[in-house]
Amino acid sequence: MVNRDHGDVGDAPSVPPPLQPVSIPAQPSAAEQARTIAAAANAATLATLTVDGDPWASLVAYGLLGGAPVLCVSNLAEHGRNLAHDPRASVSIVTASNDADPLATGRITLAGAVTAPLDGDRAAARTAYMDAVPSARFYIDYSDFTLWVLRVERVRWVGGYGRMDSATGADYLAAEPDPVTPAAARAIAHLNADHADALVAMARAFGGYPDTEESVCTGIDRYGLDLRVHTRRGIAYTRVGFPERLTSADQLRSVTAELAHAANGSA
């Protein structure tokens, strides 16, 4: 369940491998993960280049036009002047989290170049920004503000320690935000508080760790559950996939109940 496409693991702690194959390892692609993170927020760190070629980072608000970030930037601001002379830019978006370790939180970088939307595209971009940032009605039509659309060319997703991957701009724009994510936090809390035994059974039956002694749900998406399992061999992370991809968060209760029943039946 770990994606590493760079670097040396060095002296990273060893993780006990699964003793059996994971039954359904399906999980969201990097493009899907990125679309989901982008759709859940409306603030990002914008990186631009100054006239001298120096990097410049600024906090900005954004909307989404078919997945492409829409910015409304003052021409008097440093980053506004930067975009006017060099359209290359990237935005970094971080998942909201209460985790004390910010590096354990999911985040993305979307890189490309900005363009000013024209004609009909401008109306769509304006609407997308206003939908995400309602207070923009006080300034969006001022002459010293410019709408920019970031044409995404490269995507980097990091899901926390040891979980990372890249995607093309085309794959990102073709992907869809996960419909389960808005309800995930409440479902995770419910499973961990009321169904700890079921999570252990799932990890043993479907997650490849029949020696699981404790199992904690750390994530849920349309494809399945992320689990942190505790064994006598150490702590590992695994996946319990759903039989079919979910299309709505309303399906979560029934599919997790079915998984728990199936896991207990296979014990």
UniProtKB/TrEMBL annotation:
UniProt xrefs under Pfam families: CREG_beta-barrel, DUF2470
Region of interest called Disordered, as start-end residue ranges on this chain: 1-30
Signal sequence, start to end: none
Occurrences of domain DUF2470 (ranges): 184-258
Superkingdom of source: Bacteria
InterPro entries: CREG_beta-barrel, DUF2470, Haem_oxidase_HugZ-like_sf, Split_barrel_FMN-bd
Domain named CREG-like beta-barrel: residues: 28-173
Coiled-coil positions: none
Protein name: DUF2470 domain-containing protein
Organism, scientific name: Mycobacterium paraterrae
